[in-house]
């Protein structure tokens, strides 16, 4: 193996390692009966914030994992000592599910350096699946950022399925689902089949 592919391999391993940390946060969300999405923000090769979805707990649909962590980073004087235009320009996000359009836009406004995600967000994905808020949409001010999916994708899908096959006790009227069977087959993304 040559030097370049050696480096690429160790980089891939690092991405997977950070994504495993994000998966732990998704597990924590699942244990708390939240839609299991977790994330970590990495700066200078260390985690500066980790978070998970808290929308049910706080009864607030904006409390996605990414925004929870961003709020904490911005309110921490060590992590954000001065107010700058793009406080996340040296920070990388690892999140188990593709950021939704709301979070993808917030990340762009904060100048995030780069994003890695697990599985696509078919309904609300803001990093290419529904809308390319990260780099396809023109913006007069905020710089685009790169978003790459597929890291721990199977695990990210399976934990979502584990959540959706159990009763959502927070729903006003819990729906009885006839076919609560945990599916284990995972189909590749369409754009992977080329
Ligand atoms: Zn979101």
UniProtKB/TrEMBL annotation:
Coiled coil: none
Pfam families, per the entry: dCMP_cyt_deam_1
Domain CMP/dCMP-type deaminase: 13-129
GO molecular function list: tRNA-specific adenosine-34 deaminase activity; zinc ion binding
Keywords linked to the UniProt accession: Hydrolase, Metal-binding, Zinc
The organism of origin for this protein: Serpula lacrymans var. lacrymans (strain S7.3)
InterPro entries: APOBEC/CMP_deaminase_Zn-bd, CMP_dCMP_dom, Cytidine_deaminase-like
Keyword Metal-binding carried by entry: yes
Gene3D superfamilies: Cytidine Deaminase, domain 2 (3.40.140.10)
GO biological process, one term: tRNA wobble adenosine to inosine editing
Keyword Hydrolase: yes
Full protein name: CMP/dCMP-type deaminase domain-containing protein
């Amino acid at each position: 193996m040559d030097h370049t592919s050696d480096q690429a391999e160790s980089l891939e391993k690092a991405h997977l390692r950070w994504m495993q940390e994000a998966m732990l946060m998704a597990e924590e969300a699942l244990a708390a009966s939240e839609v299991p999405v977790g994330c970590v923000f990495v700066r200078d090769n260390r985690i500066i914030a980790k978070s998970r979805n808290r929308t049910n707990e706080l009864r607030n649909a904006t409390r996605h994992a990414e925004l929870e962590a961003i709020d904490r980073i911005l309110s921490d004087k060590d992590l954000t000592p001065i107010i700058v235009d793009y406080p996340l320009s040296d920070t990388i996000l690892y999140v188990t599910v593709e950021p939704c359009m709301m979070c993808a836009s917030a990340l762009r406004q904060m100048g995030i350096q780069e994003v890695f995600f697990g599985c696509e967000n078919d309904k609300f994905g803001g990093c290419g699946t529904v809308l390319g808020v990260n780099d396809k949409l023109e913006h007069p001010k905020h710089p685009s950022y790169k978003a790459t999916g597929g890291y721990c994708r199977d695990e990210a899908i399976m934990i979502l399925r584990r959540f959706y096959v159990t009763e959502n006790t927070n729903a006003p009227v819990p729906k009885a689902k006839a076919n609560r069977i945990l599916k284990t087959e995972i189909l590749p993304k369409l754009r992977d089949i080329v």
